[in-house]
């Protein structure tokens, strides 16, 4: 059994291949970050056009990397949303054409399910933790933190998700990206904030929105607090004369911001996992690449924590192939009528910080 997964929901064109055991045979990612960096965020029309250019070469490279032929593919899994409409249309239509020309099944995958199942893909020495084998026997808490979403989802059975809470405003990754822009750092902001915050002295803490009594999150107040502090310290808006800003001031704000996001995500996820009697916690999505978030969750959680390697955290085709394998096994095999589910929230990072 070989499933090819195609991901084009945002600014990565990626194709992965998994076998029937969920082992990753290939995971090729063509990222557009350098193209969008000059605009300070994703420009949807530019993203769709780049997917058109990249999709076939990336697919061919994945077939070569997996050491298979086109005829070995048993199903094509495609992200159909949520994401940028134009980007999704490229990948979904390519997938439909590929599956129909090969005479194999087309399996639709929700991007968020894909992120969760990135944690179930086996790659190199990276295997599963014992609690991950308990799907269906005991619930598993999944924190999905990306540029477009921040969700606490309970995995109750394979392919059976219950949304417990989500952000009421900005996604965690979106907040990282916008705060980075206020601090004069490049896009994508998450890795930049992590980099400059490393080794920074403790700064005055920034607020935490606990959203008490719910599993929801909110990051827009924190973002405003960053903006106000940056204004007060004279680093935002950038000076017209191009005067350089003190890197230690930027580092201090970046660290206080990151500490606040990590504290809220970790505390609420652990509390929800204990309350729901979970077997363990899974941390996925692009923001799961954040070092302090990974370390703090593992350190503080009394339950076991599984976090996929970086290449399975940010958008990638292998996670879509893995989620496609689950859908295929659940009998979802011929999604020929599938349409895209656009999400207006993604791709707005080039707009002014609000
Ligand atoms: O899952 P993903 O690749 O794409 C979406 O589905 O949105 O997530 C991208 C997000 C961006 O907002 C980026 O800033 C964030 O993940 N990110 C990070 C780190 N690496 C990527 N955030 C914090 N720390 C990181 N090291
Ligand atoms: Zn994503």
Summarize this structure briefly.
The chain has helices at residues 33-37, 44-66, 85-102, 111-118, 172-182, 189-197, 220-232, 247-275, 291-300, 310-313, 317-329, and strands at 2-7, 12-19, 24-31, 75-81, 105-110, 140-145, 150-157, 160-166, 281-284, 305-306.
Structural description of this entry:
The chain has 354 residues and is of the alpha/beta class. It folds into 2 domains: 2-126 and 312-352, Nucleotidyltransferase, domain 5; 165-306, ATPase, nucleotide binding domain (Nucleotidyltransferase, domain 5, 2-Layer Sandwich), CATH 3.30.420.40. The chain has 11 helices and 10 strands. It has helices at residues 33-37, 44-66, 85-102, 111-118, 172-182, 189-197, 220-232, 247-275, 291-300, 310-313, 317-329, and strands at 2-7, 12-19, 24-31, 75-81, 105-110, 140-145, 150-157, 160-166, 281-284, 305-306. The strands form 2 sheets. Strands 3-2-1-4-5 form a 5-stranded mixed sheet, sandwiched between helices. Strands 8-7-6-9-10 form a 5-stranded mixed sheet, with helices on both faces. Strand 6 and strand 7 (150-157) form a beta hairpin. Helix 4 crosses helix 11 (317-329), helix 5 runs parallel beside helix 7 (220-232) and helix 6 (189-197) crosses helix 8. The chain is globular. It starts with a strand and ends in a 25-residue tail after the last helix. The model is unreliable at 345-354 (pLDDT under 50). Residues 10, 146-148, 173, 176-177, 188-191, 194, 285-287, 289-290, 314-315 line the site of 5'-O-[(R)-(carboxyoxy)(hydroxy)phosphoryl]adenosine (KG4). Residues 111, 115, 146, 285-286, 315 line the site of zinc ion.
